[in-house]
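Practice problem 4.
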């Protein structure tokens, strides 16, 4: 941490800052310039925060140098992590060595629709099934998901297809029941900063897929991941799903640069959701190609056997030609950037 003194700060002002820092066990290194003095602090950064240094006389600014997140930072955990998803015998990796394709319906509607979507996903090369039983909808009048019966459908479809399941949990009170049925818990964009929910999924004993809040900075997103990690769960996969900008042509703007930025600062895997970013099926394949090229650890895509009748997000769901194109892209492109398909690394033992 660096404290910048104002040009009119006196020697007493500087001495007071130094005394306060030393009072909590820190060290202060004073560097006097012609116009300004700066003070470098070494020690426990949290104890410095409690000093409210910005309120002291003569202090112009305080800069943090280390990351505000610790457990998810690469500063102390240099190698990028792999998160394994699924029960023993069918564990799928998401991490730096592989490319993982996750697909499924936006929402679980019926057993038939879910099974059909899962079979489409599997045939296209997906190794993890997505599908929402609890849906976080903007409108209280929109389909809210089947709830617990939807979780049971997902568990049946996992048994039928051998695909581990990721599904969203919207309310901290449901974390237990969702964790009983699913292999990975999703926290959606609308709940990224629901700190009680983050702590609850941090204690659930299952990997977590943490979507970026649609108005969250990368640092806020990583701080949300830190909440989960702080509860003892480092099996967190980040998901870039588009952010709100001034551009109305797409539902959200996919922040493709977030992928390498996150990978430089955090060891956690990071995947891309082109479906929820674009909100339009015609953009899903090009954005998936971009995600692979930029080095994402996977993509998660909406598929539906009959998008016209979908109860949720039909316009972005793939089937037929587009799904075949996507299958081709996720088969051919990852090897070009040095990635092995996750299906080749599945732990079956
Ligand atoms: C979803 O994946 O079903 C979903 C609702 O996504 P998001 O939270 O990114 O909108
Ligand atoms: Mn959706």
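Answer key:
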């Amino acid at each position: 941490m660096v404290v910048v003194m104002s040009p009119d700060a006196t020697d007493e002002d500087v001495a007071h800052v130094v005394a306060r820092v030393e009072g909590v066990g820190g060290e202060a290194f004073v560097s006097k310039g012609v116009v300004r003095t700066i003070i470098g602090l070494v020690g426990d950064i949290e104890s410095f925060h409690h000093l409210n240094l910005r309120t002291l006389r003569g202090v112009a600014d305080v800069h943090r140098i280390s990351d505000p997140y610790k457990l998810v930072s690469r500063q102390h955990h240099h190698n990028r992590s792999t998160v394994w998803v699924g029960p023993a015998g069918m564990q799928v990796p998401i991490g730096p060595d592989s490319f993982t394709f996750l697909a499924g319906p936006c929402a679980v509607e019926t057993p038939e629709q879910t099974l059909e979507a899962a079979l489409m996903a599997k045939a296209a090369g997906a190794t993890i099934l997505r599908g929402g039983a609890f849906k976080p909808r903007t409108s209280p009048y929109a389909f809210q998901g089947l709830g617990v019966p939807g979780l049971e459908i997902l568990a049946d479809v996992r048994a039928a297809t051998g695909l581990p399941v990721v599904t969203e949990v919207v309310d901290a009170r449901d974390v237990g029941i969702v964790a009983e049925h699913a292999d990975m818990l999703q926290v959606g964009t609308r709940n990224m900063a629901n700190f009680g929910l983050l702590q609850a999924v941090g204690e659930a004993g299952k990997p977590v897929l943490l979507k970026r809040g649609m108005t969250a900075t990368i640092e806020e997103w990583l701080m949300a991941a830190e909440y989960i990690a702080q509860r003892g769960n480092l099996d967190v996969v980040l998901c870039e799903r588009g952010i709100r900008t001034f551009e109305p042509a797409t539902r959200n703007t996919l922040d493709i640069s977030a992928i390498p930025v996150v990978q430089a600062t955090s060891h956690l895997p990071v995947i891309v959701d082109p479906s929820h970013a674009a909100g339009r099926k015609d953009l899903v394949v090009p954005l998936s190609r971009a995600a692979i090229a930029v080095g994402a650890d996977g993509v998660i895509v909406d598929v539906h056997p009959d998008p016209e009748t979908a109860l949720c997000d039909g316009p972005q769901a793939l089937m037929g030609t587009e799904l075949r194109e996507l299958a081709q892209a996720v088969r051919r492109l990852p090897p070009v950037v040095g990635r092995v398909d996750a299906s080749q690394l599945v732990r079956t033992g």
